[in-house]
Amino acid sequence: MKLSHKLCRSIAVLGFSLALPLSARADINVGVILSLTGPGASLGLPEQNAVKLWPASIAGEKLNVTMLNDSTDVSNASKAASKLVAENNVDIIIGSSLTPPSLTITEVAAQAKTPVISLGGGSAIVEPQEGHRKWAFKVSAPEKYAVKLILEHMRKNKIATVGLISITTAYGEGYVKAFEQMAPSYNIKTTGIERYNQTDQSVIAQVTKLALPKPDAVFIISAGTPGALPQIELKKRGYKGLIYQTQGVANNDFLRVGGKDVEGAYIALSPLMVASQLDESNPIRKPAMAFNKLFEEHNGAGSASIFAASAWDAMLILEHAVPQALKTAKPGTVEFRTALRDAIENSRDVVTSTAVYNFSDKDHNGVDERSQVMARIENGKWVYVK
């Protein structure tokens, strides 16, 4: 696959085309918007590397892929989406890496009747299923499955009180809301909720307040390397309770930044991260191991992550839907974009490296409880907790 680079003046851009002429009428134009710089870069960069492994064609139709960098900025994401629909006439947009830019992208894309598969984690991207969200899909598991696993683990370990600290984004708020709704049924009390920005360099004030009631456990809700900050501060203060994280931090950069301070943390994450440790009967085990092998052959041992896999799985979902959409219309038309949206919505039993997808008109996430497992950080590695 030959990549050609181009610069877009309006925003920070990494553009590339999969060696395919835009003039070919049947080519499928795919726009990809990722956070390649800024706080979301630890998610966006592995996603970019996964996109580079996409096939050159789907269902016999060549792919044109144009990738743009939103720099983890909502305004840039909006500009990128506008460019892709107006100038590149894309048939679908994949992205962004995080929830806030994904929400903006979906609003822009829906106006042009262009479907979006987001790699962001927040359920707000696809819920409620009305208005512009009818054109949005997402690959990452919803908060409720991770929160359920965490609460079950807390109850098993006789946790009665929990302090929460969350980033101030839709991703963070989604987890906070889910936890507050579900915790009472497990007889678990929230002692306090603190918040911080992804760009903050210190959380001393928040952690001081959070630790004051001496909760049995702390639940950190963040994405990328900023998720290490509260845990490092808790360790500095000698906190001895259990610490939980979300899969938003499940990459090597988080382990590198957190070092020994994140050891022992529990995390609800994608089965991909512990694929080889799963039972043979798990349907996700084989595709997850296959992706890990492919990705690491091109990017080095230990480089595979949930974020890279999300970009790969978006392609697998697209690969499943395109043949059906082609029965209705040719790429490059509103009829094809509509047919593609409908084909994704009607996709069933799509087994990928992170989940089994069953979309519907009421569920544009499409995953079930198999999309999350519990793991623990031990010696800088993710260890499956059965």
What is the CATH architecture term of the largest domain? Answer: 3-Layer(aba) Sandwich
CATH H level, superfamily name of the largest domain? Response regulator
What is the overall shape?
Answer: globular
Give the biggest beta sheet: 7 strands, mixed
- What is the N-to-C succession of helices and strands? EEEHEEHEHEEHEHEHEHEHEHHHEEEE
Number of strands: 17
Structural class: alpha/beta
Note the gap between the termini.
Answer: 41 Å
List keywords for this structure.
alpha/beta, 11 helices, signal, Rossmann fold, Branched-chain amino acid transport system substrate-binding protein, six-stranded mixed sheet, BCAA_transport, seven-stranded mixed sheet
Characterise the protein shown here.
- Residues 28-367 form the Leucine-binding protein domain.
- This is Branched-chain amino acid transport system substrate-binding protein.
- It comes from Eoetvoesiella caeni.
- Belongs to the leucine-binding protein family.
- The protein folds into two domains: 4-141 and 291-368, 3-Layer(aba) Sandwich (Rossmann fold); 143-269, Rossmann fold, CATH 3.40.50.2300.
- Helix content is 35%, strand content 20%.
- The longest helix is centred in the C-terminal third of the chain and has 21 residues, at 306-326.
- It is built from eleven helices and 17 strands.
- The two termini are 41 Å apart.
- Residues 1-24 have low confidence and may be disordered.
- It is α/β, with parallel strands linked by helices and 386 residues long.
- A hairpin with an 8-residue loop joins strand 1 and strand 2 (15-17).
